[in-house]
Design brief:
Layout: H1 12-19, H2 24-31, H3 36-43, H4 51-60, H5 65-73, H6 76-81, H7 90-115, H8 125-154
Helix pairs in contact: 2-3, 4-5, 7-8
Length: 164
């Protein structure tokens, strides 16, 4: 394992590699196609990271959250369309889904009333926005749960192969 750098203001790619206990040479070897010098340039902000680089780093560093970070912080399209996911425990995520689904169940009649004529009238807008907010919360929680599963797989805590 390489020494930890004493450099201040390390970016997420730098800290993720260090947290994985890899030197740039080991990281380059694990990724197969990204050179040590490219890793150095990405980590020190001298070159822009590319989506394929992030996917390779996420796998090599066993940190699937890097992809969400890239999409929400560095990709112009993702900044407008992808929700930044916050780490949470399995219990927190499960309870969040159940609470949101219960709330949605209570809102389903109102949603059907609003949708009946195919438009959202001004007098329906407040209720519609509350329902939309709850749906967004459900979506973000589901994505966070998927990220939790991916991290658990990367950490070897969950095995995806059949136990046959």
């Amino acid at each position: 394992m390489g020494r930890k750098s004493i450099k201040k203001n390390k970016n997420i790619y730098f800290t993720s590699r260090e947290d994985a206990g890899l030197t740039r040479a080991q990281a380059s070897e694990a990724m197969g196609y990204i050179s040590e010098s490219r890793i150095d340039k990405i980590e020190n902000g001298r070159t822009a990271v590319q989506p394929d680089d992030v996917v390779a780093m996420a796998k090599a560093y066993k940190k699937p959250a890097l992809c969400n970070y890239y999409c929400t912080h560095e990709c112009r399209i993702g900044q407008d369309n992808v929700t930044e996911l916050k780490p949470a425990s399995f219990a927190e995520l499960s309870l969040g889904i159940f609470n949101s689904l219960n709330a949605l169940n209570a809102q389903k009649e109102r949603l059907m009333e609003i949708a009946e004529d195919g438009t959202v009238r001004d007098d329906e807008m407040k209720d519609f926005l509350e329902i939309q907010e709850n749906l967004n919360k459900i979506s973000a929680t589901i994505e966070s749960l998927k990220l939790w599963v991916n991290q658990a797989v990367a950490d070897g805590k969950i095995h995806t192969e059949n136990p046959d």
